[in-house]
Amino acid sequence: MSEPQAVDDFLTHLAKERDVSPNTIIAYRRDLEEFVSFLGQYYGVREWTWQGLDRLAIRGFLAHLTRKKLNKRSIARSLSAVRSFYKYLHRNEQVEANPARGVSTPKQDKYLPGYLDRAQIELLFQSAELRAQEGRFSDVRNAAILELFYSTGMRLSELRGINRMDIDLLSQQVKVRGKGRKERIIPIGDHAQLALRNYESKRDELLRAIGSSGDRTSFFLSSRGKRISVRAIQNAVKGFLDRIGESSGLSTHSLRHTFATHLLDAGADLRAVQELLGHASISTTQIYTHTSIERLKQVYEKAHPRA
Q: Is residue 235 a part of any domain in this protein?
């Protein structure tokens, strides 16, 4: 078996047997193709095999990614792809050991995610509601998208993947499929429920007008009646964010950060927020406590006479 063929077999295994999400497959393919390309340069004219690789070669790959100025998060993801690939090779007895296990993951830089404050959230939804009142399908849909993002904290891919049967507006909850295809149920707030009901009415009108070619499974649709694209969601949300003062650097994902930050600011339990966000580790959720602490420090420094 050729070395690149082993990568293709691994990716097919992930897609067909492990039911890994398409986005993860794309990321793993990109990382492993970069790894194979590096190994070609690393060994030059010498032949190499997966069995013959050692930790030095993998450390060389990480150094190569560092020279390309990739951030530590991207480098860690690439190392994770190599580890998973070698785990697959070892399980299928194509190599005797996994050399990637002995290579340390780069220590991640801590960062505080961008989020909107309460005043910005009010402006955001005032703008969305005014547009939705005009009754155009896209404006009513975009208002519903904003409300659902802020009400649930779900990821962009999760919102796009929602089907009609996943949303129960009577009991105010939505089922989403997160990373690793894990499902979770998230409650929906009153404002989001109202926006979603308005959108459902417009959605039904659109499907009646389009006829049998419309997508009756997907919840959020384009004006052509097909499942809305990632880019269309990003453009819709960014359009509203750009109307808010001091919105530089904010993105669709900022609504997820805002959801978590506002819950924790109001005293929500960290474990509950972890479950709502679908985080596998509590440490991932803890970044939002740092955001809250930084905000409190700013309030303290502005308000305390002897700060």
A: yes
